[in-house]
Amino acid sequence: MKSSPEVSSISQEALHLTGKATELFIQALARFSYQQGEDKSALNYRDLAEVVNSEETLQFLHDIVPHKVKAKDYLKMLRDADASEEQ
């Protein structure tokens, strides 16, 4: 927040409250992802990505927590796209 050119000063209370809100948001996201996940022994990136990409309220995180795509799958998608463009 301090690096934003539109903000001249930020109170300590605002910084504390923003930090606490962020902490609570991350806890809630992790808890929900864990509950929705298949593996109850650990929270996986796949669980987080699935929740972020399935919940409309978390749409702002789509670019930050995308579904992982294996390189071989991505290359196959590129080849398929090239083949469809050639036809």
TrEMBL record:
Xref: CDD domains: HFD_CHRAC1-like
InterPro entries: CBFA_NFYB_domain (IPR003958), Histone-fold (IPR009072), Transcr_DNA_Rep_Reg (IPR050568)
Keywords on record: Acetylation, Coiled coil, DNA-binding, Nucleotidyltransferase, Nucleus, Phosphoprotein, Transferase
Gene3D superfamilies recorded: Histone, subunit A
GO biological process: chromatin remodeling; DNA-templated DNA replication
UniProt keyword annotation of Coiled coil present: yes
GO cellular component labels: CHRAC
Domain Transcription factor CBF/NF-Y/archaeal histone positions: 1-48
Molecular function terms from GO: DNA binding; nucleotidyltransferase activity; protein heterodimerization activity
Function: Forms a complex with DNA polymerase epsilon subunit POLE3 and binds naked DNA, which is then incorporated into chromatin, aided by the nucleosome remodeling activity of ISWI/SNF2H and ACF1. Does not enhance nucleosome sliding activity of the ACF-5 ISWI chromatin remodeling complex.
Protein name: Chromatin accessibility complex protein 1
